[in-house]
Amino acid sequence: MGRRAELDRLHRAVTGTLGRGIFFTGNAGIGKSRLLREGVDTLPGDQYAVGWIAASATTAAMPFGGLVQVLPVEHPQGLSPAGILRWAVDLLQQQAAGRRIVLAVDDAHLLDPPTAALVHLVARTENACVVGTLRDGEQMPLPLRALWTDDLVEHAELSPLPPTDTAGLLAAILKGPVDGRTADRLGKLSAGNPLLLRELVHAVQNSEELTERFGLWTWTGRLELAPSLTELIDIRIGQLSPGVRTVVELVAFGEPLGLRLLNTVVEEADVETAEERGMITMVNSDRRLDVRLGHPLYGEVVRRQCPVSRTRRLQAHLAELLEGVGKRRREDLLRVAVWRLESGTAQDPAMLIAAAGQAFARYDVPLATRLARAALDAGGGFDAAELLATILMFADRPAEALGVLDTVATDTGGEERLSRWLTVRGMVTYWGLSQESTVEEIARRGTELIDLAAQARVRAFESIMRLHRLDAPTALRLAQGVLDRPAASVAARELARCAIAHLQAVQGQLRRSAMAVDLVQAKAGTWRTDMPYLQLAVELARGTRLAISGDLTGIDSLVADEFADLADAGDFRLGSGYLTILRAYAARLRGRSDTAMQAALGACAILATSRVYAGLAQAERAQAAALRGDARQAAEAMTEADNSHARSMAVLYPWLEQARAATLAVGGDLPGAVTHLHGLVERLRADGFAGHETLVLHDLVRLGQAAAPTGPTCSDGSRRTIAQRLTELSEQVDGELPPLLARHARAAADGSPEQLFSAADGFMELGLALLAAEAAAAAVHLLRRDRSPDIAAATERLAFLLGCCDVVHTPALRTATPTLTDREWQVARLAAHGETSRIIAEQLFLSARTVENHLQRIYSKLGVTGRAELRAALRTIPGHDDTAAT
């Protein structure tokens, strides 16, 4: 896994004309031995004579101990050490019998000196090479060192597995896909070390926190180190002197620690020793040199083995140290608060509230919850309760949040404090508990406020609530009123601007929506402290715009920015779940059905208990299943979407209803899907959601309805066609996509293969491979129907576009692709491989005449005239691409 380049390098080193060997170095467990074994085992035995030397601590104490697997037990008597070496080389040559000698040495740093000398001698011998592994940080025998200086072997450092390969290895171990946060967490803990990763998986498999949901493995529990894993790490840590252990413990509880600060409490020599042994490492951070642990699991073991009393004393000591130098960095307040909390010395509620606010601004929900609760317990009063309730709301615990708010209901003196209480309570009851009456309640209470800033805060929340329940005109009026009030706080103004940006996106005013979001982001440094959850409104507005505009590059940037990383790391599920939905959407339009399905399942798992985006996640799962032709899963996901979709998020209805149409279509009810989409178009037109309308109209084009009538009757008694309506909307909705959708619709309505291919090219320029393949498939269908001489080139173009996709089975592709019977497919596959009618007949137990009749029907269905065109045509049949490609 993830070692293809290194494996190829090993093969080149053995089989190349230069004939140099290669040694791989790296940490224990990084995969050196497995790589060596895999590479050598593939060498053909008739060309290479492989001799294995597996060095160990046991054999290192015996002369020629490493050769017990290569040489006979009895050695010639009376030979000098040099004579024995010569005898050993000659014996290897005799055993090789003219084949090339390959000496494979695992853990070469443990070789005894005579065996090391033999390895060096073999490396100098013609028709021989040496391959092996060495562990980092170990002393190696001088003869092996000379292999580099004499330029006899290559040297390659084996690096940790990158995140993608770590996720793949996890999926292989667990026999199923793993959600992104779990893969990232285990990947970081193992630092890309396959052995540690395996041990970690075994450790978490013994807990109940590793669960499989929607076909995806998720780990949410605390790491319980298995004895085997603890022993493995203990071997690496070894016996530490008291001074070095103190260094490692301080770093384990306090990393990153400034080197200068660390040196004030420990001996510099102990720090140097810890660094030499790989226990700690130095990292440049701005103008400071920070100290971190050499491996994340070192901290897990050291912290587990440290007695509770010593742990609390170390944490209190760290807090005092940082307080003593003045908490110079912004994050120092949070670190001191955590150390105080863990050591039982936290007594200042103001510090705890400030630290909880910082943690929440970083979207670290678990830490923010702990700190805010500690602040409330320490007498933090209303401020602590308000913050804790807000955090609990976004930790998906609305009932608990409401209970916390009720404890300070009588402590809301002053309108500024009352407005905060009203808005947090409104969030909890509306989005957390789906109580639609909240909107009227918050509107009524807002009119009772006199303070203009307090009133603006309540109005901003009312605005976005009304937008979410589809009262768009009122939402717009309220949001504009907030922006017109100079007294409104920055957070209130930017929340109102988010409501406007979202509304502009669904209306097709994409440029204005982008400008509004940019204005909000420009003020993030101001509002994030007061209202960090405003980022969700920003992402919803921005994500809606990017999805409607088909801006896949923009979606890629959004799901890879800082907020995405913070949300994933901090268990901010609403944020990471929504971004995962967008990732699935982008993959679907690219035709990458595997990626789309995995991301959709991940979103469903993350948002399983959410009242906000759970329905949207299930709708995207239905779309991904429909893309793959999986009618059963699509229907199942759509049922889940209906059960979990909250009425408080009615603004998301276009996405759910598009998924419903896709589910109907994949289930074979094309008339039902068409009827449903027509009804959805009418609803969107009535709501003024022109941006969504373009996408739904194009769904109708994909179902062959480009020339169908839509919309109200004109003055002359006629109705526009879908192609005409899309052309009209392309002048109203911003962006590159609407004109392209309109061009595709006109080409489909006119039955023009040339224009359909032109539209396909346009879709590919935007990365929309699925839509490009569908447009090309429609063109091929027309050319095939007309038996055009251009069919061969056209099928090649379609084959290329389908090659950019995974498994895709959309109605547009199915209707444009002829269906072969099982027997016809068998004949076609053999014919595509160049087999003659006689051979095909023999293999399928048919008469030659029957085979020829089959071939004529196949050629007629596919619009080809001979075997030369058959191979390209077969590539266009979904589900048979891989077989035909051979």
TrEMBL record:
Protein name in the entry: Transcriptional regulator
GO CC, one annotated term: cytoplasm
Domain called HTH luxR-type: residue spans: 813-878
PANTHER family membership: TESTICULAR SOLUBLE ADENYLYL CYCLASE, TRANSCRIPTIONAL ACTIVATOR DOMAIN
Molecular function GO terms recorded: adenylate cyclase activity; ATP binding; DNA binding
GO BP terms: regulation of DNA-templated transcription
Entry keyword set: ATP-binding, Nucleotide-binding
Pfam families (UniProt xref): GerE (PF00196)
